[in-house]
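Appendix B. Raw example, untouched.
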Amino acid sequence: MSRIVVVTGGMVDEAVVQEMAPDGFELLVAGPGSPEWLPALAGASYLVGFADMLVRDGLYAAAPGLRLVQVLSAGYDRADLGAARRAGVPLANNGGANSVAVSEHALLLMLAVSRQLIRQHANVVAGRWRGNATPRLHELRGKVLGIIGIGTIGKKVARLAQAFGMIVHYYDIARLPEDQEDLLNVRFRLFRELLRTSDVVSLHVPLNERSRHMLGARELAWLRSTAILVNTSRGPVIDEVALHVALSAGTFAGAGLDVFDQEPPPADNPLFSLDNVVLTAHMAGPTQESNIARLRNAFDNVQRVERGEKPLWVVPELLP
């Protein structure tokens, strides 16, 4: 009987894992560093979970029978892809299982910054009705949304934004064919052009050497003074030092951030002192619904490999 080792990372209830697990497999839920961990890996055919940080040469040495590493996240930037390549074991992400959650969260941040939600809440609970002056609030309708990265999540953000009456432009190194642009009602813009012409910029790119600090001081200076920047992808896509400088100087209006350079961020992170940011704790993806979808995709992929089929959603860097 093939063994599946599941790493929940505290993000998914073990009861949900047990309920979703396929029949005909030995299922072990184990945490890295626990007494059960290495014995579980020794007989594992599949590793499922929040496991990209575990993808190192040592993992494959401890689990010589691995046939698939199936991560529950969309991102895999903490995985050692060289180790995966050397081991010859496929590494798959979650197949867009959290794309609805992340796209909704991106819209949440756009609205929260546009309507100064956190400041309004603080004023009300402190007894300052509307503060010292009525805040300047903005609608999304009619605004230009610039999406950087038009993958599974970016496409869903486009559809949600259009429901709010936004005009959607995008930039991606993999440009959509014209018929797909027409179906999605989006239009391609060059990178600098998009930053200079968008009212809201939303980031949906994987973290790699090409995307790391793709928005630095120069790029942030291209944003409109009234623009909002939203990041639900990975923190290092933006130069966080440059971001703080730009927000402090009023180079652009505000930001909604779910991700940071260092996670969790240190208590003295200077972004915490700004009143034109809305911050969440890398929580765009893990909803109750997306956790079920992650497991559904993961266990389906395990069963595919067990049947001798090729897995879905293998990360592109490991494709032939």
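End of appendix B.
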